[in-house]
Amino acid sequence: MHQIQTWLHGRWAVPTLSGSAILASLVLSRVPDLPGWGDVLMILAAVVAGTPVVLKAWRALTARVVGIDLLVSIAAIGAVIIGNYWEAAAVTFLFAVGHALEAATLNKTRSALAELVAVAPDVAVVLRDGEQVEVPAAQVGTGETVLVKNGTKVPVDGTVSGGTGALDEASITGESIPVEKSAGDQVFAGTIATGGFLQVTATGVGADTTLARIIHRVEEAQDAKARTQAFMDRFSAWYTPAIIVLALGVGLLTQDVVLALTLLVIGCPGALVISIPVSIVAGIGRGAKDGILIKGGEFLETSAKIDAVALDKTGTLTEGRPRLTDVVVLGDLDRDEVLQLAARAEAGSEHPLARPVLEAAAAEGLQVPGLPEHTEPVPGKGVVATLDGSRVAVGNLALVAEEQDAAATDASGGDLSRAAQVVEELAAAGRTPMVVARDGRVLGVVAVADRVRDDAPEMVRRLHAAGVKKVVMLTGDIEPVARAVGAAVGVDEVRAGLLPEDKLESVEDLRRQGYVVAMVGDGVNDAPALATADIGVAMGAAGTGVAIETADIALMKDDLLKLPEAVSLARRTVNTMRQNIAVALLTVAALLAGVLFGGVTMAIGMLVHEVSVLVVIVNAMRLLRRHRGTDVRSQDDHRGPGRSAGAAPSEDDAPSAGTVRQAQASNPVSA
Asked: Membrane-crossing residues (predicted)?
């Protein structure tokens, strides 16, 4: 009984009952002993299929909305009144089939959201008082230890506090390859353990998890309207009354009620109504499956127009993890002594470039005992530390010049001029150089560089292939380093030495030039530029609630190739929208002409309409397939792209801490 009630409330119940009545009517109409029963069943079919349409039209009228359902209601009721029962039944039945197809398609295109909801875990195994307790996932407390075993879902967002394992994070990042997890790594609710055993300290539970935020964002995005869809709503608001007036006018002029009613039916732009939303929902659903969260239809449509992309350098085009690349000896110390002295001075520094120097020294087994006796950070220049009673400076040329003036060092001008030459050559090669001096005397230069990401050049190439005219790198780094990275990546323009407000001005400048600009950044120092751009894109947004909620597009996986994939998806979606609109308008125009000039009946017209609806639906559903251009990566993605001589080094060509190159004074920069 329950199954019958469920079926009766399903989307196919009305078309099935109506269609069955039509078939029964056609059969009984051939039985001579049952006169009139065929008409009764045909009217029944019209009533079954037409009642939901009439009710919907009435509710729309009470809200002062004249919709497509009103056209069908008037046409069907009029057809019954004049005795055209077959036409009334056929129109309402086909309209019901169209609605069922639309509902089924929208449900299909929302499959990404359904899959996300399906992966949400129901229970969690929590360690309480030394015992394993199974509780509903929503009842896990923040800070509790959750046990994740092989084959189970992670029930919370959290940090691994013990154990090792592998997680399938496809539901969050779109990445199908399992990710190894160990102590300190972040995990997300809804991901699946494919091996190992993890102890996870809960940091996000229930609605505070990344998965919950993604589901919320996809729900909002699929319901949000694009500009074209909003226009179509306004269009139907005047189109429907116009068709009613046209049909009324034709009826009065020709005294042909059937012709007037046929015009009402034929004028229903069913395919036009569904053409936009089904495309948007399919496009956003496809993106969600691939780890690309698009905020809504409006942003999807704007993304299709992007012809300029502004990229932050550090953390976007580069890994954001500088490493030591060069140690240049310019004094009477050997290479290890220069590196050790620099590391000891940097031990008390909070400068971000201190870490790669310290890591390189540790990797080579150089001792860095304790902290300096005194550390004096010099903003914008470097650091000065007191070591064994001497002042050791590690920083730019201006800092060392000040130290020389203070120490009144004799015969040091030559040292500084040689250091300046080394600094210039290292900077031109994409390194960030730091001069090392003791008591004003130059001893050497150490240099660090941020590694260019392997997929950065391929990302730029794909952006150009997707129709982006200009790719601009915006960075606060110095000009030579920025130029070297820009040349390695292949961007069209480099703007260096920028403060956050300068990045904003650069984005505004691109917009003034007529570009539709997408800004890609980390959402912190790039926030003003992200807000100013036509489309703001947050990279690697998994676990970053602010990025998911505020970015127009959030790329869940820290994968640069997702950016051109998002642009390509937006363009394909908008192209599909346009194709659907063209199909719908041509169908309506052809049918109206057919009615006015003869040959097209009400039933034939409605049948053609439903075929056009089916064409529009099938065309939109193509977006649900993974585009083949996003499946295959070039060989460069696997072996690492080639780089120009000025590029920051890759992991393969950058020397490790144990093999940092040493240059003699006669040959200050190694090749």
From this structure: 12-31, 37-55, 62-82, 88-106, 235-253, 259-285, 581-600, 606-624
